[in-house]
């Protein structure tokens, strides 16, 4: 469904439209131009906002990463210690397999 509206455009814009489209196709051209602008502008606007936020928050991001690195490093150290303890416990236990008892 279409709806008729009245808009005011600069004369240079009207001349540009008339050069781009045949007589009777202004509405279709303007509709396509608006749809294109909205879809591309929205994506560009979001991209620009994300880039600005990344630059603005880079120091905070580094600080958070450093804090988590310390936590992560501590967790890995605990896992390594547990693994070493488990390995030491296994080697200290006497084997009762048939092969080891027949020597």
The percent of residues in helical segments reads over 70%
Q: Label the overall shape.
A: elongated
**Mind summarizing the main beta sheet?**
none
Number of helices: 4
Beta-strand percentage range = under 5%
Give an overview in words.
The chain has 103 residues and is mostly helical. The relative contact order is 0.04. It is 78% helix and 0% strand. The termini are far apart. It has helices at residues 11-20, 26-56, 58-92, 98-101.
Helix and strand topology:
Layout: H1 11-20, H2 26-56, H3 58-92, H4 98-101
Task: State the gist of this model.
With 103 residues, the protein is mostly helical. It has helices at 11-20, 26-56, 58-92, 98-101.
